């Protein structure tokens, strides 16, 4: 699709500017960690074709965007899925998005990948007047120093850890808990270019557990098949991949949902510490007209990636009709978080995939 060179308040960044933008973002670590490492991975490995935009007064107004926010976007429109960074100390600059009517069409659904909670709260104050904001909440845990002294039990004799290969890609994507927003081609590129580890049965070659490094620098999607739970595979994978990520010059981090005590315990043993709160968000106007599917309601999102339902998560769905003095808040459970242990069977994964919107556009 056509790339917009300039918005009302933002301009497209030339690739030659990105190294200096990284230096600016370093001032705002750890808040800027996800955005900083997305650019770093983009420069080093070109995992995905992101378009970065900075405020026209950058760096005096330190707010930066990237489109798409994830690798699948509705209607082939990369501008309907968004990544945002703005330091909480300068959170007022998020208000520029309210009148950014060139890059963003607020009359269409928007999808924001994991974003600092302060940014989302600022946007909610604006967006809740005319639409629905669904949040999937989590905490960012960062590893500044790996606990190398942590001793682990050796692997069973019939198991071995080794790098993932292309034969593992489809199976990993099928069981990936957020595969409605990340396409299988992404995992193909990740396995080719970034570290990914699996624990395999020696005799059969069956993949029992796996974990990969993501395009935004995180520890991306640790998963263990049901038959191989409680064998210590998860912490072994996390420790080994954390070390690989550090050796590649990145700061490892994970997203852990607030109620996931098991993941929190695992990563804190390795030296991870909580840095800030984050959330993933789907935003839908109260009345959205889609010419391909007609008018859709607040509970039907047409061609926009859904947030699947699940028993093990918590999300806040904020819906405030624009009626003076009235508001309503509804809490509903939806899908699993990235980067946490997810033990699900193939049947469960296939059932989860049936909730995915079939109208997602072709990925770019």
Please characterize this protein's 3D structure.
The chain is of the alpha+beta class. It has two domains: 10-143 and 276-292 and 302-315, Gcn5-related N-acetyltransferase (GNAT) (Aminopeptidase, 3-Layer(aba) Sandwich); 159-274, 3-Layer(aba) Sandwich (Aminopeptidase), CATH 3.40.630. Helices cover 23% and strands 26% of the residues. It is built from eight helices and 16 strands. It has helices at residues 18-26, 33-45, 117-127, 169-175, 184-193, 233-247, 261-269, 346-353, and strands at residues 10-12, 51-55, 64-67, 81-85, 110-116, 131-143, 159-163, 196-201, 207-213, 219-224, 253-256, 272-285, 288-290, 294-296, 315-319, 328-332. Strands 1, 2, 3, 4, 5, 6, 11, 12, 15 and 16 form a ten-stranded mixed sheet that branches. Strands 7-8-9-10 form a four-stranded antiparallel sheet, with helices on one face. Helix 1 packs antiparallel against helix 2 and helix 4 (169-175) crosses helix 5. The radius of gyration is 20 Å and the shape is globular.
